[in-house]
Amino acid sequence: MGDAAFRGRVKVACLKFATYITGEVATVPAHSTRIKWAQSTMVNPDAAAATVVPSVVMDTQVQTDGAAITDAALQTSVEATVNKML
Fold first, then answer.
1. CA-CA distance, 70 to 22, in Å (whole number)?
2. Residue 41: its pLDDT value, please?
């Protein structure tokens, strides 16, 4: 959880997901909450990553692969975690 490289990867995944959310149509369920998270993430990605990391490390795929998790698998874990939080 405290590994700087891992936290950086989570931050990038958060930013990627935030960018995706900003392109969503307004009819997506919970869009108002999602867009607020996305905007907040883009303004302060370090805070977003710090909030998400504790839950991301509990994801089964992250637990299985550890630091060797692929970027695609980590992206999936981050998105699943954020969706649960929102």
1. 24
2. 98
Nearest to 34 by CA among 23, 43, 47, 46: 23
Give pTM, 2 decimals: 0.94
Per residue in 16-57, pLDDT (tens digit) is 999 999 999 999 999 999 999 999 999 999 999 999 999 999
Structure-token pair, residue 86: 């929102």
Each as own residue / partner, the long-range contacts of residues 53-61 (CB below 8 Å, 24 or more positions apart, any chain) are: 53/1, 53/6, 53/7, 53/10, 54/1, 55/81, 55/84, 55/85, 56/10, 56/81, 57/1
Domain boundaries, the chain: 4-85
